[in-house]
Amino acid sequence: MIRAGGGGAGGFGRLAVAVAVLAGACVDSEVTQIGAQRPSRPPGCPVEIFPSTTPPYPFAEVASARAKCHFTYGRTACIDELRRQACVAGADTVFGFSEGVRGEFTMISATLAARTGAAPSPPVAAARPPGPPPGVDCNPICSPGFACSAGQCVPQCNPPCEAGEVCSRKRTCEPAAGKLEPAKAGGTAP
Predict the structure, then answer these.
(1) What is the C-alpha to C-alpha distance for residues 138 and 186, in angstroms, rounded to an integer?
(2) Which of 14, 22, 69, 188 could crosslink 77 through cysteines, CB 3.0-4.6 Å?
């Protein structure tokens, strides 16, 4: 037995055993088939990740998977393992994470899925009002949900208002006839 200088009997040996156990148990996973068996995809295949939502395209569930990673490797190691398992299962998507910590391990459960149809066309970006002209800033800065426009804080509705509507100070769309004045930045005249 190798002893660490002055470290006590067996101190180094216990450390070596602990390191060996951690190295052997750094990342582990299990996969349960829940859909039709699919051919495996190549290692390192592209996989889209949606931790808290479902994919925005048509898909078929292939399997459920759980990855368990020692804290020294971090949460990223679990996500990398889920990606790896997705390729093995013939999936191209991992979604719907359920996460937890047990002792020194992070665990992530997710669903593995495969895209079944063409992706929908990307959404059209909403038109945003132009930014303030150079040298004109709101003072104080605007609250969240408001944008500075020509020195005034203007409400920003999400989603943007329809034609014939305006965004009120309450950040709700209202008919243009009942238009409320935009909120003024502090220190400006009413």
Answers:
(1) 8
(2) 69
